[in-house]
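New here. Your pick:
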Amino acid sequence: MGCVKWLATLVAVVLLSGEAALGAQPWGPGYFPDVPLVTQDGKTVHLYQDLLKGKKVAINMIFTSCADSCPLSTANLARVQKELGDQAADIHFYSITVDPETDTPQVLKAYAEKFHAGPNWLFLTGKEDDIRLAQKKLGLWSSTDAEDPDAHLTSLTVGNEPTGQWMRQSTLDNPRFLAAKLSTFLMGWQNQRGVAAQGYSAVPAIEDKGAGFFLFRRTCAACHTIGKGEALGPDLKGVTTRRDKDWLRRFIKAPDQMLEQRDPIAVELFNRYNQVRMPNLKLGDEDVEALIHYLEQQGATPPGQADSLPAPPPPGGG
């Protein structure tokens, strides 16, 4: 009888110890603040109870008036959703604004529609203090944010709340790579197929494709294709024959400035493609030349794809 009581006491101690350890884990319910946020549809939700608890999530910070990294990040994540296929239904994407004064639910809804955000993707606003607290707890705040709220990280916090596993990725990673990382981390190794099953003998040799290829994959592929039709922006097949080279160099390097200067082609492209701004990618002259060289190598414009945009103004013209 004493032995039975001793075993019962031991089991109780183990269970209580387990519960205490579970409650103390750093990324559990006691860690995340349950601050209220508002979706692009005007619905109030709470960070932990509604958005994180029991879910697999991918979260980043944006603001809709951003002319640099936010459009590229958002377009890239839209590609990631497509790359995930059926698995995207199990992963909740959240983009939280750092500019709640400007980014009302209506503004966020229009922004989500511009970038063809999928059904499992919420764009969120709220009170500034609540957003900042959520940003810090989600690991999406850096010391630079204290000086410049717009200088938020181009990072994606990825988490499996039930298992307590979290990691951080760049929102600007190649979408196929990022989709594979999310699939592996959130859905488990069993979802990975191909090379691992075939063995290393099936891996093709590494091909040196040049700097332009990798620049296109990293900076352009989220919004453009080459010969596969229009996406968020125009198909770039044959763009080096359709456009004056000097104009193309200037536009790749500083599209925001050309739009502000009311360059007729830049304005027409902005209006034609749903007023999605091409971000300033901060490319140097060598990178611009490498990108143009790569686009030249891809061949001429396919029949029927030439557009009817106005001719660029002469050098020095308005």
In short: The chain has 14 helices and seven strands. The CA atoms of residues 17 and 192 lie 36 Å apart. Residues 1-24, 189-200, 310-318 have pLDDT under 50 and may be disordered. Strands lie at 36-39, 44-46, 56-62, 91-97, 121-125, 155-160, 165-170.
